[in-house]
Design brief:
Two copies of one chain form a homodimer.
Chain A lengths: L7 E2 L1 H5 L9 E7 L5 E7 L1 H10 L3 E4 L4 E4 L8 E8 L6 E7 L14 E5 L19
Parallel strand pairs in A: 2-7
Antiparallel strand pairs in A: 2-3, 4-5, 6-7
Amino acid sequence: MSDTQVLQVDPTLWKDIKFDDKGLIPAIAQEISTGLVLMLAYMNKESLETTIKTGYATYWSRSRQKLWKKGETSGHVQTVKGILVDCDQDALVLLIDQEGPACHTNEKSCFYRALAKAPDANENTGCASCAGGCCG
Amino acid sequence: MSDTQVLQVDPTLWKDIKFDDKGLIPAIAQEISTGLVLMLAYMNKESLETTIKTGYATYWSRSRQKLWKKGETSGHVQTVKGILVDCDQDALVLLIDQEGPACHTNEKSCFYRALAKAPDANENTGCASCAGGCCG
């Protein structure tokens, strides 16, 4: 990592990040202002380094097999304010300021549909991921 | 799926859920009351069915290669109020009421450490995942 990076890295945590057998780590993008989970994507080491150096979320596109700066064509970029790592160092949360919708469908979050609901689920009880109305 | 399930499933979405080449789908557990991202774990079809039938988050333990009802030994169970699916049907968000801490370290969330931060990151600006203080 160079001295020109936008994000400041914890060197102890950095050396222990675990990439899977495909060299990838899942990264959950969460909007800071709302708590909304926007999307789940994957990073390889290069895309994580690029994110840290530029301050913009850059993933590894598994379908296209290339680095993918989120919003590169749509303009819906993700400014990263922090990156959290979990207890076993094999998953990340990116704390994001999202420009426009995160989803290619133009929904704010990619998680805009409910696969299942409890009968007593209440759409008005602070359900952060349901800002899009999916719990209604 | 039987008629005795606790969660009500959208049958159209159910048939399109995509499990990966290992038969797994990543599941993000998010606390409803706070928006906190608690953990990322994996489900196979059986664990997803068990979650829907019982209303308690049940994952597939990749290390132990068996079904894993979260909190089975600790008592820190996760009551599932909703399950969201993303636009390409290969990731889930579980909307959770969490009993006790979600992490085996006794931290509330498994994402309790900051790998990286922006110099201007503000610990007081509604950063949902940082309820544990990791953005401080």
